[in-house]
């Protein structure tokens, strides 16, 4: 239990996917303009991350390892994620139209989001168990949500400020991200101390 | 005579396709694509170069093969088909790097398999290779790949020089100034990348080059494959429906 809490907290705060692992920067720069869109996108990413992990982990352990096909990992994972996203969209459309209306529009974007493929690859690389992998994916998604929500606020403030012309837009956001990443580094070592 | 003229024209067209990717439509510094690997692996010049070359090889081969198969692949399943082609080459390149440059393989980590989801590659496949001839696609892939490599090399060199006082592992300023280790860490990556884009903006403005495509979905080469433009239409539609 303690171990799981440590994994969850450290992937949200210390090893934040956007601010310290640089995964999912494109949606971070593209969709974090408005709070609604940022939350919707992040929830959709979290959802897909968990489902993708739930499916790819057993495929790797029971299919690829069994038949010595580990080298097919990249191809299999990306195909599974791509078809999974389509499947989820269809299922949501049919059975949970409310959820589809709020999350569904972000789903097509997620296939090429490196955070999703990244989390499935990292779960295998870090040799997590099935439960730990699922928790790690949940944390990765929540960390993504945290960064997106933080920056939708920061961006709304920056936009009305008087900044040098060449820094307008993306450069100013990257500089802001640099400062926030710096402050997040301060959390290093705190998490392990929390659960002693 | 006529034949000679068309030949020369072809040559000029190919050259402009090639140069386009390096300067005017530089994928990293102008189009802002492939930002994840740009930030993550540029802790040293060697890593940036390794990532750039790996991506370039995948880009050239996937462009060539997609261009060859463009008439065979049904348009409804084209995206999955492209992804399989790209993933195949990524796996091959991954093995080559692991065998001949294990140090770089270790430094790049999961970002080597993540070349699959680099939007530059899928974007070029969708926007260019699926419409143009094999030769043009090869030049486009090479141009874009070199543009990507040069941008990574530039950022990697800057970060290595500031962060450890070295370039390609050769000590330059480390005896004069205390190296600032923060530039090798994530905040330094964001900072240097931000400053580079600002610098490019400044140069573009003084030289009066208007970038061909703006940041935003309409300008993104992968918008056709990632559907963000339709997403925004949907968002607006939902909003107006909600208002009603």
Please provide a brief summary of the model:
The complex is a heterodimer of chains A (196) and B (244). Chain A has 196 residues and is an all-alpha fold. Chain A is built from 10 helices and no strands.
Number of strands of chain B: 2
* Global geometry of chain B: globular
Average pLDDT confidence of chain B is 81
Number of helices of chain A: 10
Largest sheet of chain A: none
Overall number of strands of chain A: 0
Q: Which value, in Å, is the CA radius of gyration of chain B?
A: 20 Å
Helix content of chain B: 55-70%
Radius of gyration of chain A (CA) equals: 18 Å
Regarding quaternary structure, how should these chains be classified?
Answer: heterodimer
Q: What string, H for helix and E for strand, traces the elements of chain B in order?
A: HHHHHHHEEHHH
| SSE-based structural type of chain A | mainly alpha
First-to-last CA distance of chain B:
66 Å
The average pLDDT of chain A is: 85
> Can you tell me the residue ranges of chain B where pLDDT is under 50 for at least 5 consecutive residues?
213-230
Question: End-to-end distance of chain A, in Å?
Answer: 12 Å
Number of helical regions of chain B: 10
Task: Explain what the structure shows.
The complex is a heterodimer of chains A (196) and B (244). By secondary structure, chain A is mainly alpha-helical. Chain A has one domain. Chain A is built from ten helices and no strands. Chain A has helices at 2-14, 25-31, 35-64, 73-95, 97-103, 107-110, 114-125, 130-159, 170-185, 190-194. In chain A, helix 3 runs parallel beside helix 7 and helix 7 (114-125) runs antiparallel to helix 8. The longest helix of chain A is centred in the N-terminal third of the chain and has 30 residues, at 35-64. Chain A is globular and about 60 Å long. Chain A starts with a helix and ends with a helix. Chain B has 244 residues and is mainly alpha-helical. Chain B has two domains: 2-209, no CATH class; 215-244. Chain B has ten helices and two strands. Chain B has helices at 2-22, 35-40, 45-68, 78-100, 102-108, 119-129, 134-164, 186-206, 223-226, 228-243, and strands spanning 166-167, 170-171. Chain B has a two-stranded antiparallel ribbon with strand order 1-2. In chain B, a hairpin with a 2-residue loop joins strand 1 (166-167) and strand 2. The N and C termini of chain B lie far apart (66 Å). Chains A and B meet through helix 2, helix 4, helix 7 and helix 9 of A and helix 2, helix 4, helix 8 and helix 10 of B.
């Amino acid at each position: 239990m303690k171990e799981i809490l440590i994994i969850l907290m450290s992937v949200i705060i210390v090893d934040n996917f956007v601010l310290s692992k640089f995964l999912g920067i494109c949606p971070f720069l593209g969709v974090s303009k408005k709070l609604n869109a940022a939350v919707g996108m992040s929830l959709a990413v979290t959802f897909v991350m968990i489902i993708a992990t739930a499916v790819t982990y057993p495929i790797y352990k029971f299919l690829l390892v069994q038949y010595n096909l580990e080298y097919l990992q990249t191809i299999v994972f990306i195909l599974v994620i791509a078809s999974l996203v389509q499947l989820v969209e269809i299922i949501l459309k049919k059975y949970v139209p409310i959820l589809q209306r709020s999350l569904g529009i972000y789903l097509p974007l997620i296939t090429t989001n490196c955070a999703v493929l990244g989390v499935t690859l990292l779960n295998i690389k870090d040799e997590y168990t099935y439960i730990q992998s699922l928790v790690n994916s949940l944390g990765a998604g929540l960390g993504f949500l945290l960064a997106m929500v933080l920056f939708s606020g920061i961006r709304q403030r920056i936009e009305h400020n008087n900044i040098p012309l060449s820094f307008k837009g993306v450069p100013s956001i990257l500089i802001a991200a640099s400062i926030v990443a710096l402050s997040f580094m301060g959390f290093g070592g705190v998490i392990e101390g929390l659960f002693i | 005579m006529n034949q000679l003229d068309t030949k020369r024209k072809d040559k000029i067209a190919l050259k402009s396709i090639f140069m386009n990717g390096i300067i005017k439509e530089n994928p990293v510094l102008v189009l802002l694509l492939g930002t994840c690997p740009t930030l993550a692996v540029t802790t040293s010049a060697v890593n940036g170069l390794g990532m750039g070359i790996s991506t370039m090889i995948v880009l050239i081969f996937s462009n060539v093969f997609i261009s060859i198969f463009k008439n065979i692949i049904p348009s409804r399943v084209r995206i999955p088909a492209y992804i399989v082609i790209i993933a195949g080459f990524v796996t091959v390149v991954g093995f080559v790097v692991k065998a001949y440059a294990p140090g770089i393989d270790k430094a790049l980590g999961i970002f080597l398999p993540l070349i699959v989801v680099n939007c530059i590659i899928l974007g070029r496949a969708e926007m260019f290779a699926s419409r143009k001839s094999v030769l043009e696609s090869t030049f486009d892939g090479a141009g874009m790949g070199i543009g990507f490599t040069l941008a990574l090399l530039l950022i990697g060199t800057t970060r290595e020089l500031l962060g450890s006082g070295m370039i390609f592992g050769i000590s330059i300023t480390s005896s004069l100034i205390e190296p600032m280790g923060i530039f090798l860490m994530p905040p330094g990556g964001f900072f240097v990348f931000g400053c580079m884009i600002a610098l490019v903006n400044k140069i573009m403005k003084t030289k009066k080059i208007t970038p061909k495509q703006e940041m935003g979905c309409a300008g993104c080469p992968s918008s056709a494959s990632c559907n963000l433009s339709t997403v925004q239409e949907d968002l607006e539609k939902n909003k107006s429906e909600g208002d009603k």
